Amino acid sequence: MAKKGQYIYEYPHPAVTADCVIFGYDGKRLKVLLVKRGQEKEASKEAYVGEWALPGGFLDVDRDKTIAYTASRELKEETGLQIKPSEFKEAGTFSEKKRDPRERVITVAHYALVKLSDVQADTDAENAEWFDFSEVPSLAFDHDKILRVAFAHLKRDIHFEPVGFELMSEVFTLPQLQNLYESILEVKFDRRNFANKMKHYGILDEVDDGTPRNGTRNPIKYRFNKENYDDLKRRGFQLEF
Amino acid sequence: MAKKGQYIYEYPHPAVTADCVIFGYDGKRLKVLLVKRGQEKEASKEAYVGEWALPGGFLDVDRDKTIAYTASRELKEETGLQIKPSEFKEAGTFSEKKRDPRERVITVAHYALVKLSDVQADTDAENAEWFDFSEVPSLAFDHDKILRVAFAHLKRDIHFEPVGFELMSEVFTLPQLQNLYESILEVKFDRRNFANKMKHYGILDEVDDGTPRNGTRNPIKYRFNKENYDDLKRRGFQLEF
DNA sequence: ACAAAAGTGTTAGGCCTACACCCATGA
DNA sequence: TCATGGGTGTAGGCCTAACACTTTTGT
Lengths: 241, 241
Hints:
homodimer, Nucleoside Triphosphate Pyrophosphohydrolase
C-alpha cells in the first residue's frame, strides 16, 4: 500500500477499488468466496465491520499496473487465494454516490472461476469462506448487486466459453457437468440430450482410472480435451443450450 | 465541474473519466462519433491536442450520480448529442499506468447506439465528426483499443439484443438491415435466408408509405414491431446468425 | 424390495443452408 | 441493352427435443 501522507489534487478525486466475485463448484453446487469484514489491520477500512462482503480493496496508484492487479493482490491478501490479473474478467463499474459511507468510492467488479478442488486448501479459513451461491447472506455495501451482475455475466459467458474447463475439477463426471450448467443457466436438461451434445463437441476424453465400470453405477469419468476445444473456438462456435 | 482548489487525501487517488463510443448507421456503413482534442477551454486537458479521440471527460465527484452520468454529460458538452445515462452500456475499464501522460487516469468505457437520422442535426459539427468505422484514424490515448473493445461488445450484443432497433432509422429496408448485420458481424449472408429468418421472428411490420410497389425495384419498407420483440425477449431467445 | 443414480438410441419435426430466375430501373 | 439491385420458394441435411427401460447400489 502506498505510504500514508498528504496527497493534493486540484479537483476532487474518487477512491477506486477492485472487488472480486470468485466462483467455484464442488461437484454439486455453485459457490462464491466471501470474507468477513473487520479483520484487516488497516484503520481506513472500518465500514460494515462483521458483515460478509466480496474480497477486494483499494487501487494502489503507485504499484498496481492495472485495476486487475488490484483485484489479484487484494484477493491474495484477504483470502490467500492466488489468481492472476489476466484471469479476471470485468463485470462492470459501480459508482453510486453513497455506495460507501466514507467517501466517494468507485469499484470495478471482477470475477473469476476456480477449480474448488485445487484451491480449497489455499484458502485462508480465518477470514474467508465458500458459500453456496443460492445461500449467500446479505452483503456489505452494494455487494449483493455486484454479485447478481457478475452471475449474469457468467450466465452469458457460458454460451461462448468453456466455463466447465475452469470450474470443474480435472476429472469429472457427466452428471456433475450437467449439474453445473443447470446451476448457472437455472434450467433442467434431459440427461441423454446433454450427454449426446457434449460428446458431439468432441471436447471430452474418457478417463480410465481403473475403477471397475461395473454395470452402470458409479459414473464414467471425463477430462476436457483442451486442443479440440481451442480448435472449435478458433473456428468460431457457440455452445447451444 | 467542481471548483478548482486543494483536495487532500491520505492516500493517492486516481482521476476517473468516462469515454464514449457512439455507434451510428447511415443505411450503408457503421459510424463512430469522434471529437478533435484541444478545443476545450479547460486548461487541464492539454494532452494530445489536435488529435481525434473518443468524447469523454472527468467524473465530477460532487455532481455525477454515477459514472454513466459523466459519460452523458461530457458527450453533450463535447458533441451536442444527448444520450441518457441509462442508455449507455459499459465496455470495460482501462487503467494502465501510463495511459495518460499527465497523471494516473482510469477510464470507464461506455458505448451507445443511436439512430443517425435522428441525431445528425444535433451534432455540433464544430468539434465532432462521424467517421466510417472502417476508416477511423489513429486515436489519442489508448482510444484505439477502447474502440476495438467496444466493437467487440457490440458484436456480442447483437446475438441477444435488437441492435437494429437502436441503430436503424424508424423506417428501413431489409437490405439496409442486412447490411448492418454484415457490418457488425463481419460476414456476408444470403439475401433470401436473411429475409426468411427476419420475417420468421415476426418483429418486422411492413410499412405502406404510398410509394408504388412497382414490380421489384425500390425496396419494401419496414418498421420494428416492439411488442413482438419484447414478447420474444421475455420468453428468452437468441438471434441466431 | 424399493428408491435413486446413471447409462444408452431412435424418431419426428424444425431450422439452416444452398441455390436460380425474374423484373425494373438507371446508366 | 446491360449491369445492378431487389424480390421470391424449395429441397436436403443436420441438429434438437422428446421419450423408456435396464442395471446397480445403498437403505
